[in-house]
Amino acid sequence: PHTDSYLYRMKEIDGNRCDRARQRTFLIPLTEPPGAGLYYWYKNGTRVDVDYKVGNVYSFEVSVLHAIRPFPYFEWKHGMMDSRVTIQAFGIPCGDKWYI
Fold first, then answer.
1. 85, 4 in Cβ contact below 8 A?
2. CA-based, 20 to 30 A from 17: which of 58, 71, 77, 83?
3. What sign does the CA torsion over 11, 16, 20, 25 have?
4. What span, in angstroms and rounded, lies between the C-alpha atoms of 66 and 21?
5. Tens digits of pLDDT across the chain (100 residues)
6. Nearest one of 66, 62, 54 to 91, comparing CA atoms
7. What sign results for the dihedral spanned by CA atoms 1, 25, 21, 9?
């Protein structure tokens, strides 16, 4: 498990003050093999289990402890659809804009 809090350290972009407390992580699954998903933990230690669904966007504050959910090993018999492929992006609000 890890957080993404280390990513943005700037105080401003283009003269706009950044709000580091509101930084977010965005996950967009492109494939949905069996077992693909995410774990995240509340501050009290409770774990939440999320099943990835293609077409959904998952977002959370960068300070949230999270990890990809373990999934079974497989041989690449059927190509990319067997694999777990996810786009990950990070955003920070600075002034009245979000920088992704």
1. no
2. 58
3. negative
4. 17
5. 999 988 778 899 999 999 999 999 999 999 888 888 999 999 999 999 999 999 999 999 999 999 998 877 666 666 655 678 899 999 999 999 999 9
6. 62
7. positive
The pair of structure tokens assigned to 3 is: 């957080």
Q: How big is the chain, counted in residues?
A: 100
Per-residue buried b or exposed e for 59-94, using 16+ beta carbons within 10 Å of the residue's own CB? ebebebbbeeeeeeeeeeeeeeeeebeeeeeebbbb
User: Which tokens is 56 given?
Assistant: 């959904």
pTM: 0.82
| Rounded Cα gap, residues 62 and 24, in angstroms | 5
Which two three-digit tokens encode residue 38? 């995410």
Both tokens of 76, joined, read: 């690449």
